[in-house]
Design the sequence.
């Protein structure tokens, strides 16, 4: 089976439409993971016992079950309880929730790395716990975690083809549809691989650059 | 509270009255016990400090010196006893204004009393993401509610006072240890505390920076109204600036007296042993 260049060029625009959806899901999912992960980290750091225990278990549960199962659950089970979500929203929710367990862990390591003396100094100056956390501890905790968060972003990007199983027409799904339509899978699926490769390489470079930058910033 | 500690309290009160001549001690500890796990750090400690007194606290490491300071500013709680700042209980408060009934202090109560106390740490603990000026202005602005302009005027005065005019824009990482510690002193002073606590403030410094920090402390000690509790290993410095020296051992105050007495004619054998060891070194 020979490579067909004219077919390749003809499907490229449609594939790029799929790429746009992939990027949407990736960045929205990442934003969700950043915010929700912070909520988990804050609760684990400072909330009263029962709530903290609940969150510890929830995070453990999310990390210990496959993303694929979570996606199926959100898309196919939640509607039976009255929560109907569009494929993309379900996908963003699934990616974001899954990766919030990992961003929470990244935040936690960053927060723990801030010396206890910083809490002492702020408390002694009259800051309350929450103020100390937001104004003194977090600004020191976050910059060192930026490379690790960047790696999470890349991981979300590479997991995003899973959304194909809940009918999101992202890059992989789009390639599958094109292949089925034309009875040729070689070109669309190769292109998917190439696109992922190129974008992953670029973003890894970017993360490495962020690493250098965050080391200089501290 | 037990009968025993009440009577100790009265005795401590009398001796403080005799020393300061009038009024309530600015810091009072009665029967204070502090444990870390099984280890007893402070053992039924009684201490009265009169307003304006400069008290040096000496003793070997692990004797509980720093813990006294950390309790005074409520960075540590206590297991037994009572601590008062200017007559007001630190770790308990009266319930809804009713007389007698006391409940454990809440965060607001601790914060109110903490405002009257400042502390300088061994490792400076400056905020690394802020400039020297911002380190000093942050708490006056956020906690005391000063305008940024007022706070900056005050901060510049303080920086000048500790000999660091012109370093406003430097980040802690750009300053020497001695300079960082002087910024930390200015930061504590910016809150206008009545009581200043110095927790081995020269122990984390290279020898070349010790002098400049001690000079700032000497300068502060000239202020009559400022109460100072100074934990230090610099015996000559303690002798020089303190009105009173406490020798701590095993979580108890073994000897308490004017520096002339403690350093020249200590009454307790343990004080002599300790001084022999440190002064030899």
Sequence:
């Amino acid at each position: 089976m020979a490579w067909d260049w004219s077919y390749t060029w003809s499907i490229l625009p449609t594939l790029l439409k799929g790429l746009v959806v992939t990027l949407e899901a990736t960045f929205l999912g990442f934003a969700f993971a950043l915010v929700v992960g912070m909520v988990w980290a804050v609760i684990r750091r400072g909330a009263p016992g029962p709530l903290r225990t609940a969150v510890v278990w929830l995070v453990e549960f999310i990390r210990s079950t496959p993303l694929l199962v979570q996606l199926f659950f959100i898309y196919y089970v939640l509607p039976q309880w009255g929560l109907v979500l569009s494929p993309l929203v379900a996908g963003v929710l699934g990616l974001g929730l899954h990766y919030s367990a990992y961003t929470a862990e990244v935040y936690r390591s960053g927060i723990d790395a801030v010396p206890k003396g910083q809490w002492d100094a702020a408390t002694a100056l009259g800051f309350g716990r929450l103020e100390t956390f937001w104004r003194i501890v977090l600004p020191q905790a976050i910059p060192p975690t930026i490379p690790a968060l960047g790696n999470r972003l890349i991981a979300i990007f590479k997991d995003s083809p899973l959304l194909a199983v809940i009918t999101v027409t992202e890059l992989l799904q789009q390639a599958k549809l094109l292949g089925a339509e034309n009875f040729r899978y070689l070109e669309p699926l190769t292109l998917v691989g190439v696109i992922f490769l190129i974008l992953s390489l670029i973003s890894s470079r970017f993360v490495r650059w962020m690493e250098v930058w965050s080391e200089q910033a501290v | 509270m037990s009968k025993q500690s009440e009577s100790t309290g009265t005795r401590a009160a009398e001796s403080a009255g005799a020393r300061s001549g009038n009024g309530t001690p600015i810091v009072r500890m009665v029967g204070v016990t502090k444990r870390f796990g099984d280890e007893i750090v402070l053992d039924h400690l009684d201490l009265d400090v009169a307003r304006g007194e400069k008290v040096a606290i000496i003793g070997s490491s692990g004797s509980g010196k720093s813990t006294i300071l950390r309790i005074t500013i409520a960075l540590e709680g206590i297991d037994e006893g009572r601590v008062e700042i200017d007559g007001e209980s630190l770790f308990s408060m009266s319930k809804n204004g009713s007389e007698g009934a006391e409940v454990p202090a809440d965060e607001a109560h601790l914060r109110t009393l903490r405002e009257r106390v400042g502390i300088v740490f061994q490792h400076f603990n400056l905020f690394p993401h802020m400039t020297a000026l911002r380190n000093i202005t942050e708490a006056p602005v956020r906690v005391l509610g000063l305008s940024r302009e007022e706070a900056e005027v005050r901060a510049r005065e303080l920086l000048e006072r500790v000999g660091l005019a012109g370093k406003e824009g430097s980040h802690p990482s750009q300053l020497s240890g001695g300079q960082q510690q002087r910024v930390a002193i200015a930061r504590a002073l910016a809150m206008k505390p009545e009581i200043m606590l110095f927790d081995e403030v020269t122990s984390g410094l290279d020898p070349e920076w010790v002098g400049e920090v001690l000079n700032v402390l000497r300068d502060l000690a000239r202020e009559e109204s400022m109460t100072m509790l100074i934990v230090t290993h610099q015996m000559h410095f303690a002798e020089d600036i303190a009105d009173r020296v406490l020798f701590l051992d095993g979580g108890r105050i073994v000897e308490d007296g004017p520096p002339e007495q403690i350093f020249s004619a200590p009454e307790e054998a343990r004080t002599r042993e300790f001084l022999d060891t440190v002064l030899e070194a």
Notes: The radius of gyration of chain B is 19 Å. Residues 1-21 of chain B have pLDDT under 50 and may be disordered. Residues 143 and 241 of chain B are 31 Å apart (CA to CA).
